[in-house]
Fold each of these.
Amino acid sequence: MKKNLLIPTILTLAIIVMQIGLPGCKKSFLDTERQGAYDADNYPYPGGSGPYDQFIFGAYNELRSFNVHSQAFICATSIRSDDADKGSTPADGGAAAIDMDNFPVLPSNSFCNTLWLGYLGLVNKCNVTIKEVNTNKTITSTDQIKVQTIGEARFLRGYAYFMMVRLFGSVPIIDTVFENPAAQNNLPQSTAAQVYAFIENDLTAAAATLPLTWDPSKFAGRVTSGSANGLLAKVYLQQKKYSQAMAAANLVMTSGQYNLNTSYDKIFREEGENSSESVFEVQATASASIPQTNGVQYAQIQGVRGSGIFDLGWGWNTPSTQLEGAYEANDPRKNRTIMYTSTATTTYQTIYSENLPVGLPNPRYNNKVYTNPSLRSSYGNRFGYWMNLRILRYADVVLMFAEAANEVGGTVNITVPRNALNSVRLRSRAGIAGILPDITTTDPAVLRLAIRQERRVELAMEHDRFFDIVRWGIAQSTLNAAGKTNFIDSRDVLLPIPQTQIDLSAGVLKQNPGY
Amino acid sequence: MHCYHQIYLLGKLNVEFTWYDRTTTDILTGVTLPNDSRSYFTNLGQISNKGIEVSLGWNDKIGRDFTYGLSANFSYNKNEVKSIGNNFNFTIIGNGGVNQTTTGQSIGYFYGYTQTGIYQSSSDMSKQAAFANSLPGDIRYSDNNGDGIISPADRGYIGSPFPPYSFGGNFTLGYKGFDLDVDLQGMTGHKIYTQRRTATFAVLNYEANRLNAYSTAGTSNIEPILDNTRGNNFLMSTYYLEPGDYFRIRNLQIGYSFQQKLLLKAGIKKARIFLNGQNIKTWSKVTGYSPEPIIGSILGGGADNGSYPVPAVYSFGLNLTF
């Protein structure tokens, strides 16, 4: 035993000798550069594209995070609506997910805290970018790049707060990076009206400073003035500011950057990413060696819950029978939105002509996230992390314009909204005669319903339906009729403020009404 | 402050007594901030630990061949947060709010509801405080603030993941060439949060406790209904806490040393064979794999989310010295 003690002594001596030797080196061996990835200190500018890339790309990257655009997002924006069911097996996800479908959502629901932290995480990355542009003296840059970078950050921050205010109502506004987070982070809520004013400020500034377009070969999907005006139209529409919504949408429509020429079928394929339809889209990429890390866990959560080559995901967020019944006769968009599981008597095919299996846990799946099987095999991965998330499409902008114009214009100007509506229907016909006839009404009340109907089927499973029925004031009647009988407007139009955040805040945050 | 006494008596009795009162300041720890998913490292106020440690030992011989020794130890520790620093204007939580740290309490204590039973029927429920969406078969919680309804305001301290009491013992025997050594150890007073049971993604493969779940009135007043859509039953409460008390045979060794006379002929100076068992028996009511306190994070400890079991190790050995 005694002999063994010598070994540690020798080791200790060796370490002391090594440490004495170290001052000769330029760098401590603890201070090595991280291998295989860049960080904020060594991001390769000027080899990159801009002096603030490490910050603003960090903010864009948050759009792909699990807390922002994944399971909780799908639950809160789609499964809560009448167009989608939770899907998967009945018990999968437990109370947290089932309550998103059936209401009420409890303050302890983990998805609420996920969303809260996700969007405020995105806000933080935007605030960091703005702070660096304004204060970092070691980065040299033109004023134009500075203004543009702040514009991008303010767009993303405006988007994050637009999600927050629609999900939670009154939320704390964080517009700075705190020096002492422990003392400063615990902010009280601002009213929803104050949050909307903050969002309008950010998006208006972004619209004024962002470029009309980026070099698509280098910067596909970077936000533009069109993205900002399109989102602004939605922000105005949500507040029933119809003339402003109409004006903002019109700026997108007259920008010359977008059109309805991309076929409805192609928009949702990988080859349709960043098409002339795309106004704001979350960028996801993949390769055979990195099939998931640079993507978003979005298609996977909704992917076909089968086995073998049809094990494409969890099978959540399945189109409801109410959505199925909402389409006009022979509308091609129905089968592009709803994928049917084969039955004993009928074999259904995917858009790539594969036969769908029988006996899957769900009769329908979201066809808009169905990935190309040849990409699956080239990436050696079935889970579609590379599928971009279409946040704002041109048809959405056109329909927002139609809706706002109809509310503004009254009988006199009915042709303006009607033409916009019919332009979307024209594309939807895909050249097939006898379907989806032009709307010819001259009654704004009839047109209003027609626009709402068009919005529902055109944008089905694209995360707007719940917010739409809330702003139209028909959430309770619609959801109760769809079998969600627990839903009451006085409580369920907003999610509860997460109990974890209320606990953390030591009473600073107040719970939403009814919870 | 630290006080230590040791008494020897005739080289046979050994008594040690330690009393301590230690205040630690500025513990560096990661805290959960409001409105932020990142852990923020900062110095956390003042923590006091007070306690006693007592140990008693007796070693003696009977005749020429028989030796024995007995020892026992006991310790008590009281942990209290004196202050949490004046730059905190929010509550310190751990593990998503399951643990809280507030002044005047043990650090990282469990925070939640107290179960008082199960709502047996609608009429039973109508007579008691309940959540707006409670249903028969749900856990009935204590209406701590007496306002007639169950709400987050009814939560409070429900236990600590840190054991205040620990104890142990050692017993040795020697008779001629034989020797025996037994180590015993235990802890009591702490709680374990069975977080693994809050997983809701499957309705198969429950733990055995769920065999007794409520199905109709009168079937159980402890185990709620088997229904993972009842979110109220997954809230942090005493239902998910179990006493962490345990007592364990930490080590047991039996050996025999051969007589030197016989060995020298074979050129061996010493030879001993032994049989050793570690963790061979644990007495505990804990349902997870290990009853020991699971403290990954000091502010959010005590959760058994599928802990790795402590292995029982048996070994047999032969020591030869040439």
Amino acid sequence: MLDRKTAPPVKLLSDRPFREPAYDTLKNGLPVYLLEGGTEEFVKVEVVVRAGSYHQHKPLVAYATANLLRYGTKGRSREEINEMLDFYGAFLHLDAQKDMISVGMFVLNKHLEPALDLLAEMLQEPAFSEDDMHSFLKNQQQVHLLNQKKVSHLARTYFNELIYGEDHPYGYRLKTPDFDKVERKDLIDFHTRYFHGGNAFILVAGRVPEDMAERLEQRFGRDDSPDPVSASSPGYPVISPGQRKVHLEVPYALQSAIRIGKQLFNRTHPSHHKLKITNALLGGYYGSRLMQNIRQDKGYTYGIGSNIISLVHSGYFFITSQVGADVREAALEEVYRELKALRTVPAEKREMEILKNYLSGSFLRSFDGPLAQKERFKELVMFGLDVSHYDEYLNTLKTITAEDIMECAGDYLHEDGMMEVVVGR
Amino acid sequence: MEINTMVKFEKRTLPNGLRVLVHRDETTPLAAFNLLYDVGSRDEVPGKTGFAHLFEHLMFEGSVNVADYDRQLQFAGGENNAFTTTDITNYYITLPAQNLEVAFWLESDRMLGLDFSEKKLETQKKVVAEEYRQSYLNQPYGDAMLMLRPMAYQIHPYRWATIGQDIEQILNAGMDDVKDFFRRYYNPSNAILCVSGFVDPQEVFRMAEKWFGDIASGPENGRSLPAEPRQMEVKRKEVFGDVPQHQIFMASHMCGRTHHDYHATDLVSDLLANGESARLTREFVHERKLFSEANAYVTGSIDPGLLMVTAKLHEHISPTEAEELLRHELHKLTKALPDDREMRKVKNRVEATHTYFESSVLAKAMNLCWYELLGDADLLNRQADAYARVEPADIRRVAEEILRPGNLSILHYGKRKD
């Protein structure tokens, strides 16, 4: 008779689930990381420029610079570029974040040559047509207006403003008129200042051809640093805000979006790994305390979670959820109760085992395949870390105790130090 | 177009009817475990819509021998989720390959029987009600498809969305409904299992036999759905909401997923709006700057589905004029044949999309189950060829059928005047 009551035995990973990427430097100093693997004949080439909204002197400049790359170069019109990309089945991802701009391209190996030519051209010789810039920003203004109708979006932007202050680039909340204020020269200036070999790195993941480094050298290897080299960031003081809570009434809303958290530190901090594990216990996975209590036991929400975010010059922690308007107060109370419990109620043996095993499997998944590995190595390069960072994480995961978690929660996630944004009804 | 790397697999059917597929991939330390049940919102009865999806939630609330599905899986380093569509309910797990048997243990137990309780049912009804609000009602345009489906479909159950016609019906679900649904649909003969990843096929078949072999085969699925009559008149509706711009939604009936014209129809939607150089995007977003976005896609359902076209309008174009322009642009497909370069372009994009986004072991496991449901898992390996064979004349023929007079339901979603 089959024993259905007892779980089959479980084994966990014992070794590092990754190899170090191959590393190369182009003649102009541009670092290149190659992550070989996968089952299909394609690569993703990603050029990361170390400049984002933190470095701009006017809202939306980094965002518009990144997105306008595909709207025409000195040699090719927007239409030609779009035709070429679509014809070769090349997928372009343009992403401007706070600390970086990422220009990524998926391409089948059989179309790699023309796609790389185009990628280099877009990065090095963008036309930044005035007309296209205005029409792009106008379309984005519509997206912005749409976002203003979403309580979750409002909660996110008001939260960032609350924890960093309205003048800090990490906290700045976009306003509708900002979309009308960007000028062509802002883009040209941003591009000249930050888009060069000395301020970027390249990651290639997938079935990487043997001569990939040479191919990149031909297109990205020339010395193009501006004169004088001035990639230094402006530097912003963080104004500690006096306010701790923002409640925004949205009369038509059916739910309230909640965001609770605070400013902390990034992944280079010695407590980062402990904090990451502590956060997981609280709200970092489906089995977390917040999810089990507020969704699975109370049914107040479709989902609740928490996370820690690393930025180059800072970091923060937040809890996020959307709850029924009628249970808003009850849900808030439970969130604070869980925060307090995190530093006062030790995780039981089974809770710790589940947490550790889950995170170990999750770590393995996060390195599955070259594309996933590329994401993990990008984090390291951005923060000037090496793979020992991940060895340390695995080691912390092995040794951390329930008491360590309570101590970490007491040090960094005390409920009294939290800021709170509620948007909705 | 070149044929993609083949996804090799082995297949066995257990005596109780469970179909088991295995794909081995040595490049990953993981295993993906996908279990598809042949039941979706099209199997619901009027007045009790949204039920298949609510049931999916209940599947995580404990089974006869295992009280804590999620915790057991997390303990094995695994991650799981599920989704429900008009046609299927699909459960999936990824976990370290050496712990694969845990997935078999958990999934077979919940096919064997669930540990139903009133409290769990009541809680999940609340959770789904919040999901309904969060994803459909509290989102700008979130209810557009809820309104469009009953315009396009008169009698087929596709007339309601998977989330359900309204929250009330979900809150009314009772324990008897739950038990009936389980008996009827959650059994081996109504399911397809696929394991892919770093696994030994013989070992997978042995585990399948061990864990699923003694579960009794269920009743015949017995599905008998009414065919939707041919739509002969344009349906239109205008609504106003708290949205920033006017959006047009157009739905036209198309063939079902296994029809020989499916791939040509899919390419019609690609010609219109897949990629920045596609017709609607190039013409109306980039060149004439009348729309901020345009989209086209097929629902891809098993029974005859819908070709959807949507456009978000800038202020300086009137909705009437925009609709006119859109329809005129669509009708070009019935006049001139697309040239070879444009055909190659859309086919190249299909090949690329498949290669980039369906190469994970999980995507392969899901796809093998889906194509097995459609008739043969090996259809997965014949998709590229099916797209490659589409000729310009097929595009025109399919476009003529879809764009025939009367085959259109159109929703204007306007900005409410304050």
